[in-house]
Design goal:
about 190 residues, mainly alpha, about 0% strand
């Protein structure tokens, strides 16, 4: 791979079927892709598979990418859509098993006291349990908005959905999370 390659050069190389462009993009976006996929599919190895499949899809569909637009939102839409599809397929086959919560460990900062750590663990578990009860599409809009920090407008543009639909999905997902968390705190 070339030294000092930038994203635009990587995309141009990839459009010419030069794999070094994909290597650059994978190095830049792999961790974020895996994390986003994990939040939707809730399985570390499936999240890695989703991210890997997304990079393969990028390799095959990069010629259709409009290089005047930013790459990251386009790519993350591929990841999110693939994760939703995988989660829906799995939810029809098996119940999800929570194999790892390592990702959430990285989201919750270290606290000074043992009491704060216990509270943090309880909060994390409550949020995780509530997220598990959302549909894959609801989890996806939460991930896009709060993990990928996409605006509602960006989410609508990238998904091809109307802005009102995205607002409704996000509102419904937040309301369901709020309700689920309120139910948990009443227990």
């Amino acid at each position: 791979m070339k030294n000092h390659l930038d994203e635009q050069e990587a995309i141009n190389l990839l459009k010419q079927k030069d794999i070094s462009g994909l290597e650059f993009l994978a190095m830049r976006y792999q961790t974020k892709a895996i994390r986003a996929a994990y939040l939707i599919v809730r399985d570390p190895s499936l999240a890695e598979d989703v991210a890997q499949d997304a990079f393969i899809q990028v390799f095959h569909s990069i010629r259709g990418f409009d290089a005047s637009r930013p790459f990251e939102p386009w790519f993350m839409r591929i990841v999110v859509n693939a994760a939703i599809k995988k989660a829906k397929k799995l939810s029809k086959q098996i119940n999800f098993v929570d194999e790892s919560e390592a990702f959430f460990e990285s989201l919750i900062s270290n606290f000074e006291s043992a009491e704060e750590q216990v509270i943090s663990l309880e909060t994390k578990n409550q949020i995780w349990e509530a997220m598990r009860k959302l549909s894959p599409r609801q989890r996806a809009v939460i991930v896009q908005r709060y993990f990928l920090e996409m605006s509602e407008k960006e989410m609508a543009q990238e998904s091809g959905a109307a802005a009102g639909t995205i607002k409704w999905l996000l509102s419904a997902a937040r309301q369901k999370l709020k309700t689920l968390l309120a139910e948990r705190s009443d227990e």
